[in-house]
């Protein structure tokens, strides 16, 4: 198996490059949990790809050793757990290290498997490198560079096609659904994933439509938009 395919397997687990040991196991557990079909944001195809990628990495362990490994934190060090929104926009995470509580700056666009450096935080005065784990939150999960979410859609719209408005982390986005689609319908909203960082490209947002009789129709969305624009406060102005 080529190094390129191995690198693709690492990316499927949300890793920036070859990783082993506890960091690999943690990344796999996070990715497979986020992809579980019975969980919000999960998807059966993505679930199978995550498992296949992990098995490939295990099977090709010898080839992996030939690749240059990234800087890895000691096994005893904690993971920097960040939410999806923190990975998108940056922020500050709190990490407990022995008797100390450290505040770690999180740069926008960080990926699971990246390492954040804490200058002078080691016991000997050196730097610490703590691994990052992006946890699913607010209906969003992350695989590699991309975000995934589910959204309810009227069954009639899925059958006949039409426009649907989706509440995303950057506001409402309107998308057209093609008539006659069957099976799982997954829409791609370009460039709404994790922002570009280092050698990683800007990701996309993948929205899986869930048929629902209670989902707002296109007319409901239009009325809601009209109401937002023509509020009494705006009319008074």
Task: Report what the structure shows.
By secondary structure, the chain is α+β, with helices and mostly antiparallel strands. The protein folds into 2 domains: 3-135, Urease metallochaperone UreE, N-terminal domain (HSP40/DNAj peptide-binding domain); 145-231, HSP40/DNAj peptide-binding domain. Helices cover 32% and strands 28% of the residues. The chain has 8 helices and 11 strands. It has helices at 3-12, 21-35, 44-59, 61-66, 84-89, 155-160, 218-229, 232-236; strands at 80-83, 91-97, 100-106, 115-118, 128-135, 141-143, 146-153, 162-168, 171-177, 186-189, 205-211. The strands form 4 sheets. It has a 4-stranded mixed β-sheet. Strands 1-5-4 form a 3-stranded mixed β-sheet. A two-stranded antiparallel sheet has the order 2-3. A hairpin with a 2-residue loop joins strand 2 and strand 3. Helix 1 (3-12) packs across helix 3 (44-59). The longest helix is centred in the first third of the chain and has 16 residues, at 44-59. The protein is elongated and about 65 Å long. Residues 62-69 have low confidence and may be disordered.
């Amino acid at each position: 198996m080529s190094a390129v395919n191995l690198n693709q397997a690492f990316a499927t687990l949300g890793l920036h490059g070859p990783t082993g040991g506890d960091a690999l196991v943690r990344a796999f557990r996070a990715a497979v949990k986020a992809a579980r079909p019975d969980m919000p944001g999960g998807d059966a195809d993505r679930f199978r790809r995550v498992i296949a990628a992990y098995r490939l990495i295990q099977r090709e362990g010898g080839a992996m050793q030939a690749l240059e490994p990234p800087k890895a934190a000691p096994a005893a060090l904690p993971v920097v757990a960040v939410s999806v929104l923190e990975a998108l926009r940056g922020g500050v995470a709190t990490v407990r290290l022995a008797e100390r509580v450290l505040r770690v700056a999180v740069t926008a666009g960080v990926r699971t498997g990246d390492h954040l450096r804490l200058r002078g935080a080691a016991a000997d005065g050196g730097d610490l490198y703590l691994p990052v784990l992006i946890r699913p939150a607010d209906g969003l999960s992350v695989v590699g560079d991309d975000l995934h979410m589910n959204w309810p859609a009227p069954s009639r719209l899925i059958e006949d096609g039409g426009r649907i408005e989706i509440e995303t982390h950057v506001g409402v986005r309107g998308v057209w659904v093609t008539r006659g689609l069957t099976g799982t319908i997954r829409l791609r909203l370009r460039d709404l994933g994790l922002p570009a960082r280092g050698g990683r490209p800007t990701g996309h947002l993948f929205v899986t439509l869930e048929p629902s009789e209670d989902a707002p129709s296109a007319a409901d969305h239009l009325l809601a938009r009209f109401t937002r624009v023509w509020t009494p406060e705006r009319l008074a102005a």
